[in-house]
Amino acid sequence: KKCPAQIVQVLREVQKLKDAIDNDINRNERFSYNSPSYLFTTENLRDTFAFENVSTALTIGSSGDHFFNAVFKGAKDIDCFDVNIFSKYITELKKTAIEHLSYSDFIQMFFENDKDIYNQLWQFLSIPCRYVGDLIFSPQKERIIKEQYISKTQILYNSGYLKDEKEYNNLKKLLPGVNLNFILTDVITENLCATTQLHIK
User: Fold this and answer.
1) How far apart are CA 118 and CA 125, in angstroms?
2) Alpha carbons 81 and 88: distance in angstroms, whole number
3) What is the CA radius of gyration of the chain?
């Protein structure tokens, strides 16, 4: 509903997403710019995030679960980096869901593919994130999301913040004070060092 000149950056982001989805060159590679991504971690983050009382963190973007666990450990300024263009918007989708949904609605939306709950959340998402979310909650979800090869029970354990309603609500309370900076890049490169909040040398 706005003049395109006022949302040039948003339109560019949406076009990048469209191009990534339409381009099949790297789609079948395990880790690439436009390969499908897991919606939840496949790693046991609950037991491996062992550090405590940090104020800043640099972590892989992935499905966003590394970010949420860094928040649990006290980080307020967090840089996430990932080569996958979908990672940023999966993280935003889950972050916005945590901020606005109850634990049971979050579980229902993501694990039962409840589009009605997603539609309630839609108004709070950025325009590019809506584009990704609409695909996730559609029959074409495999274009950007891989089928999880571990069980729901294992996912809930691995994620840490989904262990139970108490942990979920603790994360919900912490999120408003956190600054997330997402960097689209592969590994620690000059580009990452130049754009991180942590001023890596």
Assistant:
1) 10
2) 9
3) 16
* pLDDT recorded at residue 18: 86
Q: Are 49 and 57 in contact (CB under 8 A)?
A: no
Ranges of beta strands (E only) in the chain are: 56-60, 77-82, 179-184
Q: What angle do CA 142, 146, 148 make, to 5 degrees?
A: 130
Cα angle 188-74-42, degrees, rounded to a multiple of 5: 60
pLDDT for residue 12: 85
Question: What are the tens digits of pLDDT across the range 26-60?
Answer: 545 667 888 888 999 988 988 887 777 788 998 98
Count of all residues that appear for the chain in the document: 201
Helix (H, G, I), strand (E, B) or coil at 186: coil
The answer to whether 105 touches 94, Cβ cutoff 8 Å, is no
Q: What 3-state DSSP class applies to 115?
A: helix
- Enter the pTM of the model: 0.86
How much is the average pLDDT of 143-155?
91
Q: Residue 168 in contact with residue 161, Cβ under 8 Å?
A: yes
* Token duo for residue 149: 């090869």
